[in-house]
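User: I'm putting together notes for a lab meeting next week and I want to include a structural view of one of the chains we've been expressing. I don't have a solved structure, so I'd like a prediction I can at least talk through. The sequence is below, exactly as it appears in our construct file.
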Amino acid sequence: MSGLHPHPSPLPQGRGEVKIQGRTESEKALVVDPHAASQIPSARVNSPAFLAARLRERLSNSFYGWRIVAASFVINAVHDGTYYLGTSIFLLPIGRDLGLSRTMASLPFTVNRIVPAICGPLVGALIDRYGPARVLTTSAILAGVGWILLSRANSLATFIAVATALLGIGMMSWVMSTTTVVNVWFRRRRSTAMSYAFTGFTTGGAVFPPLLALGVSRVDWRFTMLATGLMILIVVVPLATRLRRSPESMGLLPDGGPPTGPDTGTAQARTAEPEYDFTVREALGSRAFWMLTVSTGLHGIVATAFGLHFVAIMVSKGLEESTAGYLIGLLSLLMAPMVLIMGRLGDMVPMQRVAAAGHFIRIAAFAPLFLWDEVGIWRMLLVLALLSPTEATWSLGYALVADLFGRRNVATLRGFMGSSVSVWTIGTPVLAGWIYDYTGGYDWLLGPSMLITLAAALLLWFIPDPRIKLLPGRGRLGEPAPR
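Assistant: Thanks for the context. Below is the predicted structure for the 483-residue chain, given as structure tokens.
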């Protein structure tokens, strides 16, 4: 088995003494005895300097992987809130300002997906080789400049050129970088950590679309795009530099050390067994990889169309445009706790079953939109409640890549997967716009989307464990090997 490389166990993580300059003897005593706080006057304990020292001490003793998760949370929030869902806010005003149909207004956001389709494997290999910090920092700078230049575009050709050359390249590595680094830093609590990072997507969707809608309605879409680009340069670029490539590079273990505490079942079995890395060739030759890729691609077809046209879909069902923008924010707010719940379930039962359940629920959410000609606020709230668990299918799918094929080549494999998915989703925004232009509604989008989602769910549900063939004695996916 030339392609399977068991990880050597790194040195145990040390908890060396933490030194903070300027501490008094009483403050130093708290490192050894937390109850020593009772021996210090309350005014001293509540002083800003003392509280700041305690906070620095706690952060310095915490597992760095959780800082990776926190940075990924913010980066994901900006990505989803501005690029994935934010483009839905810009679609209608850009079409009005430039005199474009829905089909033509969708074109820039379709063409820029050609870049990920071509460059996905290359970007994944760069992340595995040079680490996510370098790749994401460069990408974020390109994205920020891209948003700024888009705000000055005055023609469809210019819009397409900037969206493809700068925004398409600049935004393509964000999710690949954050999901890769979280996959590498965690093993036993991988699904939970990924769910925390992925709540950034839902939080960003709750925060940014209402702000973008407010900026578009109160000022214009050009100012709002300019502000988006500046925010990326100020916030995302510094955070990207903090994404250390692996716990081993800092002398640490995944999850912060060996399994401890009350965790049982799948999560503990995941750590108890030796970890093996598939080569890229072995992974690409497995049925599990392509079932996961096709399922993700089918999911992407539906998600891409709805990500750009969801505001327009709600408007076609009788809601005001501004109300629809605020409801997107509410949907993301509802999704956040469901991502955490399903992420925790993914560490307790096989991940692919939890992800498939999210797809089944999505079908139930699409059915009312397909059946009702008009929706009011209350009916739309029901649809949003049913859609709330669906975001977790992304985080679980990304975590499955490392669970099935190991950590060493996870970005490269995600690159191949993302490239395949991008090819599938290139035309979906334009197709959704064409459906509206020629039918006057979105029913012919909603009906097929339910069937596509059903196929994605079934592929996930029956995905095999590729390790059974290469590692005799393995159990089923997500279960410990039989003794």
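A couple of points you could mention at the meeting. The longest helix spans residues 287-316. The chain has 23 helices and no strands.

User: Perfect, that's what I needed.
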